[in-house]
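Exercise: predict the fold of this chain.
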Amino acid sequence: MIDQMPYPTVHTPADAAALMTKVREAAVYAKNWLVAQSDDPLDMLRAAKFRAVGCHPIEHRPINLVEQTNQTWAFAAAIAAARQLLGLHPEAGGFRLAPGADAALPLDVMSE
């Protein structure tokens, strides 16, 4: 089971897969918004940068699309790292993920 508070923890490969599913679901949300855009291309880029038209990849709360892109790849890398670390260090008891500049933890991936 994935612990979400305050940061998700990956205990098993299934936890990593479940988090990647959340990341993909958020990406679908962004894709659908982009496909629906038929306005002026500069208006679309302005909205992507300055309006909450995107979706946080894990928490599924509104954020701007530029930040969603940044957070998506930060979480994808952290999830892949945790999956690899589980194989190398099963005794660690899981890995807490906190990617991003606003995270309060000192590292993007920390063992429990």
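Check your answer against the key: The mean pLDDT is 89.
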